[in-house]
Amino acid sequence: MLDRYALLLSYGYGWAPDKGSKFWQRLVAAKDLRDYYTHLDITEPRAITSEEVLEFMEDVLLGMIWPSSVLKRTLMLGAFRIYELWEFLNQAHEPYTERPFFLQWTLKREYLFHCNFENVNEELFPNIEQRLARRNPSKA
């Protein structure tokens, strides 16, 4: 995603961002946090604080504002207004940590979850009865 953004800035606006800069590294950190929560890995649970959420929001907004200030043209109308709203949230926030219910779980083997989908490939994704039948064919 960030590579495409860099291409947009390079070919669309004639400006190549410095990928080693503080602003770009903050965008990388925001992308990593977004990826973690978008593709949740239950084997590596983590908590998130309100400060991390606000930092994520600021990083994304500055990812739009920073190139605008360098190019001296607005890339996204309204980004500065959204940043003003972020500033209000930042001043009004109270520290909080969200901990997923599975944070302290230790999983040393496979785990099952309820999955009531239709048209599932049972060869690749067998249900518990099919799995047990494969392990003990004599009881099937």
Task: Explain what the structure shows.
The chain is mainly α. The protein has helices spanning 2-13, 22-38, 50-71, 79-92, 128-135; strands at residues 48-49, 97-98. It has a two-stranded antiparallel sheet with strand order 1-2. It starts with a helix and ends in a 5-residue tail after the last helix. The relative contact order is 0.10.
SSE diagram, text form:
Elements: H1 2-13, H2 22-38, E1 48-49, H3 50-71, H4 79-92, E2 97-98, H5 128-135
Helix pairs in contact: 2-3, 3-4
Fill in the keyword field for this structure.
two-stranded antiparallel ribbon; 3% strand; 140 residues; mainly alpha
Percent strand equals under 5%
Q: Report the C-alpha radius of gyration, rounded.
A: 23 Å
Poorly predicted runs are none
Distance between the termini: 49 Å
Question: What's the total count of β strands?
Answer: 2
Physical arrangement of strands within the biggest beta sheet: 1-2
Structural class: mainly alpha
For the residues shown, what is the average pLDDT? 86
Helix content: 40-55%
- Rough shape? elongated
* Major β-sheet annotation: 2 strands, antiparallel
Q: Give the number of helices.
A: 5
What's the SSE pattern?
Answer: HHEHHEH
Give a short synopsis of this structure.
The chain is mainly alpha-helical and 140 residues long.
